[in-house]
Amino acid sequence: PGAMSQAVSEEIPQEQGEGGSRRSSWGLLVTAGVGGTLVALYAVATPFVTPALRKVCLPFVPATAAQIQNVLKMLENRSGSVVDIGSGDGRIVIAAAKKGFQAVGYELNPWLVWYSRYRAWRDGVHQNTKFYISDLWKVSFSHYTNVVVFGVPQMMPQLEKKLEDELECNARIIACRFPFPCWIPDHTTGEGIDTVWAYDLKHSRGCETKSLEITPETES
């Protein structure tokens, strides 16, 4: 009996040691899994959060179907290229490309740019679209004829000045959700959050050219 008792006492710690080792392995796996998940979440979330930490941020809020239709209405009978400032997931750019425009989007979030490129390829308009990962304040929009902006109130005064300095007189600026503070819109459509304002720069800047009127000579 004494020998059996000793053997049992020797086996118990060994089993406990094996259980503790298994629990330790599972703990390491769980820790590694949680750590990997947090790293992945950080990689995905950082491009979304970083713009919000800027002095003037342009958060991603998907355009509604009504907003897209209102933007397209403001592009009717327009020619030239279209650029969407803060293009998000590319909805406006893709919709404009489907209407025959060469459309470009600028977006700071790389995940949204890659997704936009995928959507353009999926919808068969990738040849008429381009998406760039860029800060809008570091880009010149001087060669674009039609500009779409989904802005926030804090950025509109500064953006108004930037566009007025860069764009040609034949440009049209289409603002969604929030109007520009100083310009008077030439056209407005929609209501509530779906309201869209269109500004023809030739009117806002006062550079509209008038055709010369030729008065026929009257016989005396």
Automatic annotation (TrEMBL):
Keyword Membrane: yes
Membrane topology of this protein: Single-pass membrane protein
Cellular compartment(s): Mitochondrion membrane
Top-rank taxon: Eukaryota
Main location: mitochondrion
SUPFAM superfamilies from the UniProt entry: S-adenosyl-L-methionine-dependent methyltransferases (SSF53335)
GO annotation, biological process: methylation; positive regulation of sensory perception of pain; regulation of mitochondrial ATP synthesis coupled proton transport
UniProt keyword Repeat, yes or no: no
Keywords: Membrane, Methyltransferase, Mitochondrion, S-adenosyl-L-methionine, Transferase, Transmembrane, Transmembrane helix
Any single GO CC term annotated in Swiss-Prot or TrEMBL for this entry: mitochondrial membrane
Transmembrane segments: 26-45
Positions of region (Disordered): 1-23
GO molecular function: protein-lysine N-methyltransferase activity
UniProt family annotation: Belongs to the ANT/ATPSC lysine N-methyltransferase family.
PANTHER family in the cross-refs: ATP SYNTHASE SUBUNIT C LYSINE N-METHYLTRANSFERASE (PTHR13610:SF8), METHYLTRANSFERASE DOMAIN-CONTAINING PROTEIN (PTHR13610)
Entry protein name: ATP synthase subunit C lysine N-methyltransferase
Organism: Myiagra hebetior
